Each structure stands twice: as C-alpha cells, then as structure tokens.
Amino acid sequence: MQPSRARRMRWLWLPWTLTGLVLGVLPASAQDSAPNVAHQHWIAEVVASDLDIHVIHVSDMPAPSQMQPDPWESRAAVGSTTSATFRLTYEAVDGDRHELVAHLQIDNITGELSSDGRPVSTLADVFGDLPVAPDTGGRAVVQANFTQPVYLEIDGTTAYQITVYVTDAGEPVEVWDAGGHGELTQEQADAILDSLGLSDKVVHTGPPSDSYDCHGWTFTNGEKWINNDQVQKILDDNGYVGVPSGQVQVGDLVVYRDEYGNITHTGIVTAVDENGNPTEIESKWGSLGRYRHAPGDVPPGYGEPEYHRSNRPNGHQLEKIELEGARLLLLWLLLWLLEWLMRVFALV
Known about the structure:
The chain has 348 residues and is of the alpha+beta class.
C-alpha cells in the first residue's frame, strides 16, 4: 500500500529538520557571513514565495582591460561584461524540490543586469513565475556563480562565500578561479619562451595553466589566481620584513617591482650562494608554466627583485577560511542522497 501524502510530507521534512539541527549547532564563527570582498561563488537562503523583496545590487565592477595582458603577466583579462549563472532550489507545495537556472549578463561599466536582453533588478525578474507554488514554510536557496569576482548583495539575504582567503590581520584577499587569458598548450608556452630568449635559462617545474599565477602559487599553493594589486596588503599584514643582499635564505619571498614601484611578480628563493646571495628562484609566470631560474632571468617588465622574510608558522600561505556556504552545500548533497534512499525504500 502506498503511503499517504501526509506521510510523504512528514518524511520530506526529515532532511530539512536535520539541516536545521546541524546548522543550529555550528559555532557562531562558522555562521558569520563572508567579508565584503569580490568573489565568484555566492550562496544564500531566500524567500521563494516573495522573490520581489530580493533586490540585486552589484558594485565596483572590474574595469574592462584596455589591452590583452601578456601571457606572463599576473593581471587577469577583463571583458566588457561578466556572465553569471543563478540557480534557485526550493521546496514546493507538491512535496518536491524544484530547481530553476537563469543566465545573466552584468555590464562592467554601468553595473546593469540583464537576462536574454531584458533588464532585471530582483530575483523575481530573474526566475519569473515559478512552475510550482513554493511551500511558504519551506527552505529555498539561491546560488550564483560569476566568470570573474564581483561585489554582490541581495536585499533580505546573508550571503555565504564558500572559501575566503585572508591576511593575518583578517583582511580578505580577492582571488580568481582562472586568469581569463585562455589555457596555453605546452608548445605555445615554449614558443613564447623562445621569443623571450629564455628557453635555455629556465628549468620547467610545472605546466602552463590558467588557473593560478605567480602570486597564487606563492600564497595559495597554486589553488587560485591573485592579481598584482592584492599583494602589498599581504606583505603589510603577514609580518614580512625586507632582507638585505648577503642575508637571503632559501625559502625567502622574492618580490619584483617595476620602475614605478608596482608589484609585478613573486616567487620563492630555492638556492643561495655561500655569501647569502640568491642564485635560483622558483615562480609561476602568469598563464605560462612554473620555472626555476636565476633572479634576473625573467620576462620583460617584471623589474628588479627584492627579498622578504616572515616568521609565520604556515610560511607564505594565506589563511583559508571555509564558511558556512561550504557546509550548506555539503548538507544539501547529503539531503538529496537521504531523500533518494527514502524513495528507494518506499518511505515516500
């Protein structure tokens, strides 16, 4: 005999009750919202029955690149628009969960949002009429993914960034999931080295990759791309002090600055001579590969190297904070698995 609808609804509440219990016992620090930093992944609970209240605000959009960065630069290319995917998952009156997906464009100059050419300002504009009426007491979650970091706020929500990198002073560091230049093949990267006259002056230690740059390798172990403009606060907040010539040690940080004092490149000292002078650096060159090389054998424009040291216990790596968004996503996966198991065993 098939269970009644009331019994089905009772079992469907079980996963969400477990979610509430787990989230409710998280420490307060785990439930803090993300710092005000541009990010590419965003998640928050919303009111599916009244999406009009959720007005979308974007600000401080990245300025479009005036020219395409060279492949060895630690500067991500920025187009005229940012693409976004919004995903709404909600509990409905029919006892099931429904999911809607919408694709948006954000004008990087005006900050205006549009979907299929029509302007949008609220989540109701984004998703339109829901196919099945939402359960007024049910949960609803919106996830947003962007092609480049943006500052996003939605009225009536508290956003949770999945991962935040911070300095020792708690300042968030803006990171990218990809540089935006386009992945290079090994042959293309080798051809660029040839054109720079550096092919016979480097030892390859990693293949070309668009997912991280020199700063991302130095400060996140190759997990992210970090633009040049984020590095100075890392130096300021993480206890780095300058190291004079003749006192450099293996493991010290090397920072390159151009003629105007702007940071262009970072790496790690891997060898010094008996007089304390660096003889070898390992670093990632933009979207090219990772190499070991003499301090002066670098692409044009990097400028001159300087050396820094910090006594931090975790070396050069930034602190990575996993916020509630990651826990919530994991719980959702577990809940979906639980519901599937309940269906298999004819509990719903």
